[in-house]
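Standup notes, structure subgroup. Blocker cleared on the DQA input:
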Amino acid sequence: MKLLVINGPNLNLLGTRQPEVYGTTTLKDVEDACVAHGAAAGIDVACFQSNSEGALIDAIHAAKADCDGIVLNAGAYTHTSIALMDAVSSVELPTVEVHLSNIHAREPFRHKSYLAAVAVGQIAGFGLQGYLFAIDALSQRLNGSS
Ligand code: DQA
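Run returned:
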C-alpha cells in the first residue's frame, strides 16, 4: 500500500509559523513521522508540499498512477479551492482531510471546507498526530477493516 501525504501553502514554514497556533513541529518532523508510522505498518508513505494550487492539483492527479490514498492538509486552500475539491473527486482516491489546528474553533472563515464534501473524513486539532490517525484510517479502510 502506498499513501501520499500532501501539505499545502505555508506549511513549509511549520515550526516558526504562528507557533502559538501550530506548535513548534516542523514540516520535516511531520513528514518523517508519517514515513516512520507507515513503515512500521508496511505502508509506503510519500510526501509532497507546495505553496501553489496548481502544483497541489498536479500532485493529486499524479497520485492516481501509483497511490492508494491521500492524506491532505491543503492549508488555506481548504476554505477556498473548488479546483482542489474537484481534483480529489476526479481521481477517486480515498482522501483524509487533516488540519493541525481545530479549524472549527477558529475564525468563521475556517469553518467552511470545500474538501470535506469529497473526503472520507476530516481530522482537525490533533497536531502532527492527526496525520498518523489519517494514515491509520486509510490503512484500515483500504484493508477493508473499517
Ligand atoms: C491549517 C488550517 C488552515 O485554516 C490554515 O490556513 C492553514 C493550516 C491547519 O493545519 O490547521 O494553513 O490547514
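Discussed briefly. The chain has one domain: 2-26+35-72+86-107+114-142.
Next: hand off to the docking folks.
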